[in-house]
Write a structure and sequence with these properties.
Blueprint lengths: L1 H15 L2 H15 L2 H19 L5 H13 L3 H21 L8 H15 L4 H18 L7 H13 L6
Length: 167
């Protein structure tokens, strides 16, 4: 009888979509495959560090930490997209370069932002967020800064609110 009660309870939980079951399922797959969000952040941190190293800048560890700290302040709706775009641009940058370095990462992001804005594609703001994080940390490495003054107030307001007005 106890076995029947347990099976019935398990079936009810599974059919109800109980958050406990979803959390257990998520926990199981994270255990098996790893947390995809954490892997994306680790990849982005690695790409930012590689950018710094390939340009032979100073204090790359501090720059990487600063950059990732700034991206962690972005609204949740923006943060995961920004992280994936960093990795995408880094990969594209390395493919485009014969010597396989990632020194063009932020030039690529900035150029794409301007092209997308000119074409009227609203997702250029994700690139503005990336440049915002870079500019916030560029003094650590004496790296160049990019002109995003027209977006800075919007980004700071959205960070303060904790959510994006646009997406």
């Amino acid at each position: 009888m106890k076995l029947l009660n347990f099976n019935l309870l398990l079936v009810i939980l599974l059919l109800s979509g109980c958050s406990f079951v979803k959390d257990v399922q998520r926990s199981f797959w994270i255990t098996v495959w790893g947390n995809p969000e954490e892997k994306s952040k680790a990849n982005a941190a690695h790409d930012v560090f590689q950018y710094c190293e390939s340009k032979k800048l100073k204090s790359c560890d501090i720059y990487k930490s600063c950059f990732m700290n700034n991206t962690s302040k972005f609204p949740d709706s923006v943060q995961s997209i920004v992280i994936s775009r960093i990795t995408g641009h880094s990969y594209k940058c390395m493919e485009d370069q014969k010597e396989k370095n990632s020194s063009c990462l932020f030039d690529s992001v900035y150029d794409e932002m301007k092209i997308m804005k000119d074409k009227g594609v609203s997702s250029y703001m994700y690139n503005a967020y990336i440049i915002y994080a870079h500019n916030a940390c560029a003094l650590v490495t004496d790296d160049k800064m990019y002109d995003i003054e027209q977006y800075k107030n919007i980004i700071e307001a959205e960070i303060k609110l904790g959510k994006s007005k646009r997406y």
